[in-house]
Amino acid sequence: MPTIVAIFLIASMAITMFALPAANAQAASTVTPYPFVDVVPNPCGINQQVLINYGALNYLTSENDGWNVTISITKPDGTTQTLTPPKTWSTGTAGISYVPDQLGTYYLQTIFPQQWYNSSASSHVLYSAGQSDKLALVVQQNAPPSYPWQPLPSEYWTRPADSQLQDWYTIMGSWLIPTPTNLNNDWAPYNQGPETAHVLWSQRIGDMMGGIAGGATGKNGYETGDAYEGKWSGSITIGGMLYYNKFISSNPQQEVVAIDLHTGEVVWDKVLTAANNTNMRIGFGQTIFWWSRNNRAAFSYLVCSGSAVSSAGTTWYYFDALTGNLQFNITNVPSGTNYYGPNGEILKYTLVNYGNSAAPNWHLLQWNSSWVVTRGKTGMSESWGSQVLGSTYNGTGAVTGSSTLRGYDINMSVPDMNVVGLTMPSASYTRAFVGDKIIGSRVTLTQVNLWAISLNPSNMGKLMYNTTWTPPASWVSGNVSAGSGMQSGFVCWSQQSEAAVLWIRETRISYGFDLNTGQYMWATEQSQNFQDAWDDSPSYSHIVDYNEYISASVGGTVYAYNITTGKLLWTYNATDPYHESYLGNNWWTMPVVVTDDGKIYIGSMEHSAQEPKPRGAPFFCLNITTGEQIWRVNGMYRQTRWGGRAIIGDSIIATMDTYDQQVYGVGKGPTSMTVTAPDLSAAFGQPVVIKGTVMDISPGTNSDNAKLRFPNGVPAVSDANMSDWMLYVYKQFQQPSNIIGVHVSLDAMDANGTYTHVGDATSDASGTFSFMYTPPNSGKYTIYATFAGSKAYYGSYAQTALGVQEQPAPVVVEPQPESVVEKYFVSAVVGIIIAIILVGVVLAILMIRKRK
């Protein structure tokens, strides 16, 4: 059944399909109304939600006008019910949901009471009372059929995905905020993480030479785009596209690159320019779903601020995500952290004291980017799309004809903060949870303060708590760096878990706080690896997801704690068996992505680029609830410290690799199959060889380099071999030995339509499989070869034909009649032979006796 929201769209669409009538009625004139009522669906199932469309076929002249009506419902048992729904829209129509709970026939009727309508300032029209015809709603036991469900893709898919494939949204997430950041705790909703290291495609990043330099430079390589020279910064994904800044931030010549996440194709590579601002860099991405009277749709943008030389500035430039063309801009954007609202709007929060310390007058302000565009607009002009093209909006300017500032949709007093002498940690807040609360914090050696003000519409602006916790005395005696700089203090905040974690660098101990109450909860029992104290940006290496607090830092041990109790759940050591890392026995690690299906991805990087580079830095995927390793590749997808980290979109990870300065797309890829059988008919009863291939046809295998190295194509291999195989295919490492291919199922259908499973085969390092088969019958066979797919690949199949010759008829030998001569001659001969044998036996006995 369509959702009630979808039905409501039908009921409320096309307000401007008809011109509104001119207000030519005279004062005190009487007009006849034309009420109506309808129900969708009709008939319906018992306890099935339906939509009642109601109103009158009389249009109103002002957008905010509407009719007041009631709906009378007579149920199958004879009882009546009266609904008082909201007034109609200016079209005279509206809709509400209703759930019938009796079998039988309901009767509905819209009742239009007599009412006045001011069609203009000087014209008042009286509409007489009226009522619609009664509508019969049939309620049956079973609901009518709903639209057939379309499953998630079982083969390789690309954008655009048809809007009718509605459940696909669950695997079509974007990454809108460039890394590094911990605002979202590396959480990537609407993404299922890759289950192997399989490469879909690779592209050279920017204009950098990559890999080892060679010659007189010895073992040293080209620059990595790291160490204050970040090349991957600003990378985001939107709507199946990857975007990144091509050059380092200080380069006066800038370009932004857009790549199709599914194919690796460079869609465009251009300088983003607006008026006097050129060479702009990506600030963040935004997809806003806008619901207006005439237009309901999502719109995606790249948002840039300032220029290549200076990213500072209060003007936001919105570029279309598909084309890179400028759409509109917002000036005078207030400072503060960006938060995403429920429809993708950008929100900023501010606390302002309009009074003074003696007479405080605190106000909570919410700036809403969508209100900048639509404030003061009505009708068609409030819709997005073409209505914003070429426009410039003052982000905090006054609305025409009003003293209201354009961008602020909340400006309310916070009376709980107006108490003279109230001790608040700070007027500036630390973190906001949209629709929930804003939180302030202050950490010193002697106290930890937390306070929160509600953003819930039911108690907006209320002070929820203002707590103080006294830390251990060892903070003072040890003079720890609590709350100082980037090295200690609150390192992660979680709205889902309603918790925050404070990290102390010197002790490597973490402290958990309940953000529902502001109260201290726990401290970890054991210190983490001493090397974790070297992390100068711990907010990037500590996250909270799945109600677990994860810490992965310089020491190379991943720690997972229960966010409620602080109990250690599991650890994982990113060991370096060859001791290439100069830091210790483990690789420096950092969490980068957490996906909807319970996976956490962790990469390795370093603070200052070493040459020659330490080899074998890992990138790995763990089950976030158990710590079990799902896959790991050593020497691939090495992360940056000063650029961005790995990100994800449409369930495909995109990451720069600082070993070769390539950008990789990592995910499940497509395959192709072939199968052949003897071209000539096989003799009946003789075995035949069925053979074929299973090849990886991901976009990366179609590059010039891949075609030269693999002229016959790149074989598909087992999940267990995938990490080493990717190093061989894309990094030119030595070909691994003992490669196992993929499982192939072989089936046959004979001339009678009988379907038989022939057997199973496994392809080898060349992608080839074979199987010996003896057909049981003569005639034509259709042979099917099927690769069902794996964690790395989508499945594929192929078929061929096989002929078997007719079974030869058995040779029957007729018996010949026996002649009289042959009959007696043979008998006589046999008798003579027997007599001779008997004589010989008698003589032998006599000789033996004589000797005695």
Q: List low-confidence stretches.
A: 1-27, 307-312, 832-839, 841-852
Strand segment tally: 56
What gyration radius follows from the Cα positions, in whole Å? 39 Å
Q: Report the sheet with the most strands, covering strand number, pairing sense and barrel closure.
A: 6 strands, mixed
What is the CATH domain class of the largest domain?
Mainly Beta
What is the 3D shape?
globular
Helix content: under 10%
Strand content: 35-45%
The CATH topology of the largest domain:
Methylamine Dehydrogenase, Chain H
Number of helices: 6
Give me the CATH architecture of the largest domain, please.
7 Propeller
Mean pLDDT: 88
Describe the structure.
With about 850 residues, this protein is mainly β. It has 3 domains: about 5-140, Sandwich (Immunoglobulin-like); about 170-665, Methylamine Dehydrogenase, Chain H, CATH 2.130.10.10; about 670-805, Immunoglobulin-like, CATH 2.60.40.10. The chain contains 6 helices and 56 strands. Strands 3, 5, 6, 8, 11 and 12 form a 6-stranded mixed beta sheet that branches. A 5-stranded mixed beta sheet has the order 13-42-43-44-45. Strands 21-22-23-24-28 form a 5-stranded mixed beta sheet, with no helix packed on it. The longest helix has about 30 residues, at about 820-850. It starts with a helix and ends with a helix.
Describe the SSE topology.
Layout: H1 4-12, E1 29-31, E2 35-40, E3 44-45, E4 50-56, E5 70-74, E6 80-83, E7 93-98, E8 104-112, E9 115-120, E10 123-127, E11 130-131, E12 135-140, E13 187-188, E14 199-204, E15 236-238, E16 241-245, E17 256-260, E18 266-270, E19 272-274, E20 277-280, E21 282-291, E22 296-305, E23 316-320, E24 326-331, E25 339-340, E26 346-353, E27 362-368, H2 369-374, E28 391-394, E29 408-413, E30 431-433, E31 437-443, E32 448-454, E33 463-469, H3 474-477, E34 489-494, E35 499-504, E36 509-514, E37 520-523, E38 542-545, E39 548-552, E40 557-562, E41 568-573, E42 589-595, E43 599-604, E44 618-623, E45 629-634, E46 647-649, E47 652-657, E48 662-666, E49 671-676, E50 688-696, H4 704-709, E51 714-715, H5 722-731, E52 743-749, E53 755-762, E54 768-773, E55 779-787, E56 796-804, H6 820-851
Parallel strand pairs: 1-10, 3-12, 13-42, 24-28
Antiparallel strand pairs: 2-4, 4-7, 5-6, 5-8, 8-11, 8-12, 9-10, 14-48, 15-16, 16-17, 17-18, 19-20, 21-22, 22-23, 23-24, 25-26, 26-27, 27-29, 30-31, 31-32, 32-33, 34-35, 35-36, 36-37, 38-39, 39-40, 40-41, 42-43, 43-44, 44-45, 46-47, 47-48, 49-50, 50-51, 50-54, 52-53, 52-55, 55-56
